[in-house]
Amino acid sequence: MVHGYIDVRGLELNVTLGTSLVDMYSKCGAIEEAMNVFSMMRVKSVASWNCMMCGLAMNGKGDLAINLFKEMQTFNVKPNSTTFVGVLHSCSHAGLVNDGFTYFTDMHEVYGISPNIKHYGCMVDLYGRAGRLKDALQVIRTMPMNPDIVILGALLGACRIHGLSKLGELVVTQIIKIQPLNITGAIGLSNMYAMAGQWDNVCEARSMMIDMDIVRESGFSSVTS
């Protein structure tokens, strides 16, 4: 309705408005509409390209996001730190492990962008999804900052997918150290045990949640004017 109102009023689809529409459609899962808006934008900033790439990645179209990054380079648009978060996220979801490693290396060596914790998190997720847990652990060991709850959560998810309960237990220990009342570790461990049919361990994990008074945060929504 808002987009329709913009068209009816004949408002210019400038960089700010166009990028906002791309972001809105992408987050709503309407990726075709997002791409239509993006293609109609006469002027695009690096934020516009980043938004479209991240939108494609989050909607399971990692290959298209990588193609868009290549197209972005043909237009001589200089990528920034956020661009590579989108690129690495796309490689992770598309299973492009070697490409992801290349882009991660080029980010610093070619474009002069130092990786931050989000980029390292993408690499952990990339290797974890591909079952290369040793590489994921090596990323965590060599990164210049301590892993946060997001990175440890990605590693725990990989342990669950690939049935590595022992490593998962160690990851949960680290998660609890960082955020004792965060449900990610306990519920992830419980689910991992359940998938492996280790029901006694499931009961122990659930008991731990009860003893530590760990509960799921209630969902909520808000409307602002």
TrEMBL record:
InterPro entries documented for this protein: PPR_At4g14850-like_plant, PPR_rpt, TPR-like_helical_dom_sf
PPR repeat placement: 45-79
GO BP terms: RNA modification
Entry keywords, A to Z: Repeat
Domain of life of the source: Eukaryota
Gene Ontology MF terms: RNA binding
Signal peptide stretch: none
Keyword Cell membrane applies: no
PROSITE patterns per record: PPR
Pfam families: PPR (PF01535), PPR_1 (PF12854), PPR_2 (PF13041)
Name of protein: Pentatricopeptide repeat-containing protein
